[in-house]
Amino acid sequence: MFRGAKYGSDSVSDEIRNRCVAIVGMNATGKSNFGRALASALHMKRCDIDAAFVRQYGAIQAFIEKEGNEKYRKYEEELVLRSIQPGYVLVLSGGAIESEAVRKSLAKNAAVIWIRAGKKRVMRNISNAKRERHEFVGKDVRKTAEDLLAIRDPLYREVADITLAERVRYSQYIPVAIRELRTFHGHEPSVSESQNKCS
């Protein structure tokens, strides 16, 4: 859908390509598709945490039903911390941001892009999604969306270096993100290369 050269991704500095670019935001906001397109445009590797979790531990909902949500979040946190690596576009789950350890690592080691979405958009996307989102299974979508946004929006805002506002069209996500990444200046990343990569 996107071509990196079209949007001038070659002008993005090696500083960015040698960092982790992390994508955060609520469930069903297009993070996975955007992450795939951005990684292609920037000529970087991609890691999707939900997909990586499924590969390692099986379906998320089934894991939660068997092991519990607390254990799921613990394993997810460990996976995210291992996956914040230079040269990767990292797509986080909606709830991974609730981990303080994850937020600290993102602040220190990543350029963080927040796909911002309000309650109406989240509700619409959840209702139209092709697959169930485990946090909404068997729950009132409106109430759950309100509760999760109240918890997570301040956390997304805390870590975000770049915000893709709701008024930004999806077709403009890549050029806007690349434009903002050109001017990004963060701390020197300190993640060890010996850590396990996303698999």
Number of β-strand runs: 5
The CATH superfamily appears as: P-loop containing nucleotide triphosphate hydrolases
Task: Name the shape in a single word.
Answer: globular
Looking at the structure, the CATH topology is Rossmann fold
Strand order of the largest sheet: 2-3-1-4-5
Strand content: 5-15%
* Spatial separation of the terminal alpha carbons: 25 Å
CATH architectural group: 3-Layer(aba) Sandwich
Radius of gyration: 16 Å
Roughly what percent helix? 40-55%
Class from secondary-structure proportions: alpha/beta
Domains, number: 1
Give a short account of the largest sheet: 5 strands, parallel
What's the arrangement of secondary structure elements?
Elements: H1 14-17, E1 20-25, H2 31-42, E2 45-48, H3 49-57, H4 60-67, H5 69-83, E3 88-91, H6 100-109, E4 110-115, H7 119-128, H8 141-159, E5 162-164, H9 173-182
Parallel strand pairs: 1-3, 1-4, 2-3, 4-5
Helix pairs in contact: 2-9, 3-5, 4-5, 7-8
